[in-house]
Amino acid sequence: MNLELLNNAFSLVKTPLLNGRYITNSHIEKCFNSYKKSRINVLGKSVENRPIYGFKFGTGPIKILLWSQMHGNESTSTKALFDCFNLFEKKDILVNSILETCTLCVIPILNPDGAEKYTRVNASKVDLNRDAQDLSQPESILLREVYNDFQPNYCFNLHGQRTIFSAGEKNNIATLSFLSPAQDENRSLTPNRKVAMTIISEINDLLQQVIPESVGRYDDGFNINCVGDTFQSFGVPTILYEAGHYANDYEREEVRRLMFISILKGLEVISKGIKEDKHIEYLAIPENAKCFYDVIIRNVRLCRDDRDFLDIGIQFHEVLKGGFVRFIPRIEVISKLIEKFGHKEVEANGGVVVVNGNNEFQEGSEIDFVLLNNEEISLYS
Q1: Which of 21, 53, 115, 123 has its CA 20 to 30 A from that of 79?
Q2: Where is the Peptidase M14 domain (predicted)?
Q3: Are residues 96 and 150 in the same domain?
């Protein structure tokens, strides 16, 4: 796939009704009139009786199951999916081969209760991505029933990632991360794992043209309670997508575009047939590390008598207020952060920092503003 063509397509099909971080059933339902009614069905209900929707595209023999918002507060891939749906509906030349060779079963919001409350967990406070064995929740049971009925050849497990992650132990943001999950304690490179790795390698080749050194590889520690690990253990190549951070993109609109590109590229690789074993290249993708804070204020003094210079690491905490996600700065650590990086960095040069009108602040404090040498400093980029 050509990046220029994909970017042009995105600008034409981006769904205007879906924006920002808060995406719920009521948001996606406004998009349904854009699609044939036969594509959409209610697969089941959540704990709080909200519908869980499924979409079908394509007519080919290769079956691919995709699901998003298993964690209710991870909405970027849901936006990207609806952008893909618009392209599928147009029957654009970019996706004709995908739709002819593949049948896609898509669950855009698996956890509608968590989406409504903007929480990771469902209404029973269960992490659905740790419920693959117990199947204690209706959403988990539904996903397994869809899996059993559809019998996919491939699975795409679409998630979102916090701003703390880097691609390797460097000052490289993990804008997108991927994983071919392990399927046993030994993390064996089974044939289906290698296939998933090869697909990711192809996606990475394309992404390096637009976000060089900003693609990460998620930790593959085995946990059979995770859905990806379970489906991989069934012998079905499964790919975890993680939508991360891009500079100044807290609403995840640039990352949405990159997810759109990555989903389509993964589907294209499958549709054309996986001929080349590139799994070794997957292992060269740098593993995720936790190297970032949203803001670091460097070389501060906590009071005028201090001779030691410290750094203040600040993280934005996402809070749902009035139907919008607000980013609340909170002091995470006061220390020397030599091997850490900030998405925004402020150099204090030994100046005294005042937080919320005083210098009696500590780790865990929520911040309204920062004064540095009596000058108000914005924490936002």
Answers
A1: 123
A2: 15-267
A3: yes
Domain that holds residue 281: 3-289
Say yes or no: 221 and 201 in one domain. yes
The last residue of one of the domains, among 268, 289, 310, is 289
Co-location of 219 and 323 in the same domain: no
pTM of the full predicted structure? 0.96
State whether 184 and 315 are in the same domain: no
